[in-house]
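Each field is set out as follows.
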Amino acid sequence: MNPNRTLITLGLVLASSTALAHPGHEQASFFSGLGHPLGGFDHLLAMLAVGLYAARQSGRQRWALPTAFVLAMLAGAGLGALGIMLPAVEAGIATSVLVLGLLIAFAARLPVAAALPLVATFALFHGHAHHAEMGEGTLATYAAGFALATAALHGAGYLVGRWVPQTLWAQRLQRAAGAFIAGAGAVFLGA
């Protein structure tokens, strides 16, 4: 197959997933909340990336990053529930995919003072989007579902990141995964 055709097809698939990522939820429930992070490629990649990135950190930062993400995501949903709008939510989500992918691709280790606010800021956008897609129902059960799904995706990324051996080949593979995630973020941004 022609490489250009493959790249164009991949780009179109990734771009279309953003438009189709968030089906309307007529009745918000625990299960619709559980499915929301799994149904959007942008959310899925960002949440796996948080786990992958956290796995390569040291000490308490390994758990602080995913925890901060989940808590800030719930705060973002709370802001939405209060009617407080965030600017450029979809662009914020796409930027989270791009930046987290770049952090993994370059094996960057930010200090906790920089990493926590960065991850928390990204999570606010994800939480706000989750609330915007909620539909009718109670926020508590819906939020419990998307918080659990997010924690599971963080855990999956973390386990993969910790499972991969510290060989040169494995590091290259992880960096390639980060580059793929960053590339998807660039496509989501329309770059």
